[in-house]
């Protein structure tokens, strides 16, 4: 069977392609403006990539076309699918019907931390011999691949609230039917498809309706929006997490940057975790992953031991340059809260050393200018805050200055690179935050700094 995937270089669709290939299908796909690491990963797995969306891409006569949510009516390849009467489905529907049926699904949902938490949970299962399948919106360094079929009944999945396809506007996660569900947090995001926060809460409640009564939901006690969703109706036991507050799972920080903390369950100490990650957000991610692992029988001590060896995910505070006193990090930032928590963790780790934060507002929500004030305020911990304004952004970034005078707006990548190079010889931490290719700045900094 030949499956052709439209939008194959997206993190979700690329992972789906890897799983389809593992199932023995012939897999091809098309996309545009592709960039590593997903394009490289697919080519290494022998999957044929077509650059650009064209009707003639379908002359290969695939048995099934899987259409990603980035494509809409008017796209020439989508129109050709419809005009030729080809069989097509959304990615989440294909996954539910061909992979997730009859498996114990452990899903991670929330505005922030999905990729990291899914990676942690997958690694805990792997380290303890469970050989899970997984589909992750990034490439966890412990595995070197974003998705696989697995060799057990367990499948770990990043459960995104974004819609499925132009013909299925439900959130992806309603297809997954998890038995174990992590709800990391909930904020307003995806302003291109959700009118307000209540619309997102509605989708999250639809997700709750799919979790069986014998399953388990893991949620923080401190998130009021998650509490609102649960209050709409919940038929599944809820296990709570917290840092320094009363909850089923508790963390007590031994280091302010979150690199060391103790874990307790129902008041009983389970172990101490000392790892390379930092930030309170990652402490919450770890607690949730440990709790989810316990639901399938992995004791907390064994989960903590696994996380001692966790290597994080590509593009999550990934060091790409370290020389001449400068450390450059690549971080897949997409929302002001993610920027703020990342900078807070880095500040606690490096103390008074200089932090240069460079942001490309590329996510749909940030491109619409929805989070103007919170974006400006999220950069408060940076000594230098630089925001890149490309020609096609669609709103004037100068409005940020009323909330943070420390921000510099630059529309030229050469000027940004020059500022970083000028920091040579000092102890400086340069944090590049974008959920895209950022005009190739990563490669240039690696070569020029």
From TrEMBL:
Domain Mur ligase C-terminal residue range list: 315-436
Catalytic activity: UDP-N-acetyl-alpha-D-muramate + L-alanyl-gamma-D-glutamyl-meso-2,6-diaminopimelate + ATP = UDP-N-acetyl-alpha-D-muramoyl-L-alanyl-gamma-D-glutamyl-meso-2,6-diaminopimelate + ADP + phosphate + H(+)
Ranges of residues in domain Mur ligase N-terminal catalytic: 2-101
Keyword RNA-binding: no
Entry-linked HAMAP family: Mpl (MF_02020)
Cited function: Reutilizes the intact tripeptide L-alanyl-gamma-D-glutamyl-meso-diaminopimelate by linking it to UDP-N-acetylmuramate.
Family: Belongs to the MurCDEF family. Mpl subfamily.
Protein name as it appears in the record: UDP-N-acetylmuramate--L-alanyl-gamma-D-glutamyl-meso-2,6-diaminoheptandioate ligase
Phylogenetic lineage: Bacteria, Pseudomonadati, Pseudomonadota, Gammaproteobacteria, Methylococcales
Gene: mpl
């Amino acid at each position: 069977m030949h499956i052709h995937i439209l939008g194959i270089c997206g993190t979700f669709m690329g992972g789906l392609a890897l799983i389809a290939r593992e199932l023995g299908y012939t897999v091809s796909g098309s996309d545009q403006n592709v960039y590593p690491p997903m394009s490289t990963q697919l080519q290494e797995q022998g999957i044929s990539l077509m650059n650009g969306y064209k009707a003639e891409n379908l002359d290969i006569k695939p048995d099934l076309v899987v259409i990603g949510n980035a494509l809409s009516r008017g796209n020439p390849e989508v129109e050709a699918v419809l005009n030729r009467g080809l069989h097509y489905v959304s990615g989440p529907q294909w996954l539910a019907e061909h992979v997730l049926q009859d498996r114990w699904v452990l899903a991670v949902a929330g505005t922030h931390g999905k990729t990291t938490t899914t990676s942690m949970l997958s690694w805990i299962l792997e380290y303890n011999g469970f050989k899970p399948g997984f589909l992750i919106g990034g490439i966890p360094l412990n595995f070197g691949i974003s998705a696989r079929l697995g060799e057990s009944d367990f499948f770990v999945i990043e459960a995104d609230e974004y819609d499925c396809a132009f013909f299925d506007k439900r959130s992806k996660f309603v297809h997954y039917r998890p038995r174990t569900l992590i709800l990391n947090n909930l904020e307003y995001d995806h302003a291109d498809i959700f009118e307000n926060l209540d619309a997102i809460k509605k989708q999250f409640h639809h997700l709750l309706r799919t979790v069986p009564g014998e399953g388990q939901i893991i949620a923080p006690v401190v998130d009021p929006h998650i509490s609102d969703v649960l209050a709409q109706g919940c038929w599944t036991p809820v296990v709570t997490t917290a840092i320094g507050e009363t909850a089923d799972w508790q963390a007590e920080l031994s280091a302010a940057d979150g690199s060391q903390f103790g874990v307790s369950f129902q008041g009983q100490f389970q172990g101490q975790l000392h790892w390379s990650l930092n930030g309170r957000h990652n402490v919450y991610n770890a607690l949730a992953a440990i709790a989810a692992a316990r639901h399938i029988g992995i004791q907390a001590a064994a989960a903590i031991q696994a996380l001692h060896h966790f290597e994080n995910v590509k593009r999550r505070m990934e060091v790409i340059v370290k020389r001449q006193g400068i450390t450059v990090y690549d971080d897949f930032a997409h929302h002001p809260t993610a920027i703020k928590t990342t900078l807070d963790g880095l500040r606690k780790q490096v103390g008074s050393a200089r932090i240069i934060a460079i942001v490309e507002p590329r996510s749909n929500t940030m491109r619409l200018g929805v989070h103007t004030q919170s974006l400006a305020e999220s950069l408060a911990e940076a000594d230098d805050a630089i925001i890149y304004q490309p020609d096609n952004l669609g709103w004037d970034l100068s409005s940020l200055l009323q909330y943070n005078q420390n921000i510099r707006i630059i529309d030229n990548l050469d000027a940004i690179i020059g500022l970083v190079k000028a920091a040579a010889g000092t102890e400086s931490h340069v944090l590049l935050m974008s959920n895209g290719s950022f005009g190739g700045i990563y490669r240039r900094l690696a070569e020029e700094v």
